[in-house]
Write a structure and sequence with these properties.
Helix content is 31%, strand content 20%. It is built from 13 helices and 18 strands. The protein binds flavin-adenine dinucleotide.
Length: 382
């Protein structure tokens, strides 16, 4: 098992220093330790796992501190890699929405249209005709509202996207880039899976247990509860340094602050076995203050007489969750990216979602770190 240390010893020499103990940092730690290198991981929180950290709460239920995480991938190499460290519980994510007394599948499929728009569409052809009839002819959608109108028309925009997107981003969809809503698929069949990837599962004992298995062996030292900027002058020698935190923070915000949208979770444990039908149920209406309710056991497969749910509220304050897609942030990030490239000659690299100022699914974060290791050290990618 990795050694959890309290301070950095002056005698200890590290080949590799990694800032951040999330997927990106721990994948690099595992790869370098396996290659015989001595690794130091510095993490500001008092736990490993980054955004994916999960733990057993007071009632004995496995919950995620920073929001639910559903693993899905088509990347054979990543799937093979994560299977080295955990057994996996098959889980296909399905989401239902609630709007004005109606319950419907999300993303939009044939049943969603039938339920919300009082239609009786029978097959894929019917759906394609319906979409063609209802879509607003906008050739080049300029924002997230137009992107939905152009694909599925005003009714579905109103019922599913308008309120949810406004709550999630604290901005009207007209103020957001088209990509915010464009990434959500429309299905002409009745497939109600949220993801269609080949591999969809949850680590049998949770993500934190998966990460602990990754850092077995005695070549990794982990310093928790430590902000990098507070100790950076103490770590004087390394061959390579990987920074997985916020890129603007690394450079003391010299080009400005990159904006993030955050979340607040309101947890509740109930004395009943189940609370809702699916792991995730969305509330798109602006009349409901939260965006969704998550019931953890539905995804983890845990058997327990009680259940824990969390209500999710979007906010500007708190942990950095979602990069805000705006022209301002794009310009600022490009300046940091250029500054980061200058540091590669000094053996300093920027990896992961915060350093790339980009939303990564977990498999993309594993892939990004695995590819970084292979590109620097050679050998085949997983
Ligand atoms: C709400 C939410 C839900 C998500 N759900 C899913 C999902 O269902 N499925 C999916 O595939 N992906 C999901 N993701 C994406 C997933 O969380 C990321 O892919 C993953 O966390 C990326 O790992 P990372 O190591 O790059 O970043 P992080 O997990 O953020 O790790 C970075 C680590 O660095 C530490 N750190 C940062 N700065 C410093 C510093 N200066 N000094 C010391 N330590 C520092 C942080 O504390 C953190 O532990 C979700 C993301 C969010 C925001």
């Amino acid at each position: 098992m990795a050694k959890y240390i309290e301070t950095i010893s002056a005698e200890e020499q590290y080949d590799i220093v990694i800032v951040g103990a999330g997927i990106s940092g721990l994948t690099l730690a595992e790869r370098y330790a396996s290659a015989g290198k001595k690794v130091l991981v510095v993490e500001k929180h008092d736990h490993i796992g980054g955004n994916c950290y999960d733990f057993i709460n007071q009632a004995g239920i496995l919950v995620s501190k920073y929001g639910p995480h559903y693993f899905h991938t088509n990347d054979e190499g990543v799937w093979k890699y994560v299977n080295n460290f955990s057994l996996w519980h098959p889980y296909e994510h399905r989401v239902i929405g609630h709007y004005q007394g109606k319950t419907f599948p999300i993303p939009v499929n044939r049943n969603t249209i039938n339920i919300l728009c009082n239609e009786t569409l029978q097959n894929e052809n019917d759906v394609e005709h319906w979409l063609a009839e209802h879509a607003v002819p906008i050739e080049h959608p300029k924002n997230a509202e137009e992107a939905v109108l152009a694909r599925m028309g005003p009714d579905l925009y109103e019922y599913i996207f308008k309120g949810y997107t406004t709550k999630q981003w604290g901005k009207s969809p007209e103020e957001l880039f088209p990509e915010v809503t464009n990434r959500i698929p429309i299905r002409t069949n009745t497939d109600d899976r949220y993801f269609t990837d080949q591999y969809q599962a949850m680590p049998a004992k949770g993500y934190t247990a998966l990460f602990e298995a990754m850092i077995q062996g005695d070549r990794i030292d982990i310093l928790l509860g430590t902000e990098w900027s507070d100790i950076k002058n103490e770590v004087i020698s390394f061959q390579k340094l990987f920074f997985t935190g916020k890129i603007d923070q690394y450079f003391d915000h010299m080009h400005g602050i990159l904006e993030y949208r955050s979340l607040r979770f309101e947890f509740e444990t109930l004395n009943q076995e189940w609370y809702q039908l699916k792991a995730q149920e969305n509330y798109p209406s602006l009349d409901v203050p939260y965006t969704r309710i998550v019931e953890y056991k539905r995804a983890t497969g845990q058997i327990h007489p009680q259940t824990t749910i969390s209500r999710e509220y979007s906010t500007d304050e708190g942990e950095p969750y979602y990069p805000v897609p705006s022209e301002r942030n794009r310009i600022i990030y490009a300046q940091y990216q250029a500054a980061a490239e200058q540091l590669e000659d000094a053996g300093i690299y920027f990896v992961g979602r915060l350093a790339n100022y980009k939303y990564f699914n977990m498999d993309q974060a594993f892939r990004n770190a695995l590819d970084m290791f292979s590109s620097l050290e050679g050998g085949s990618t997983c």
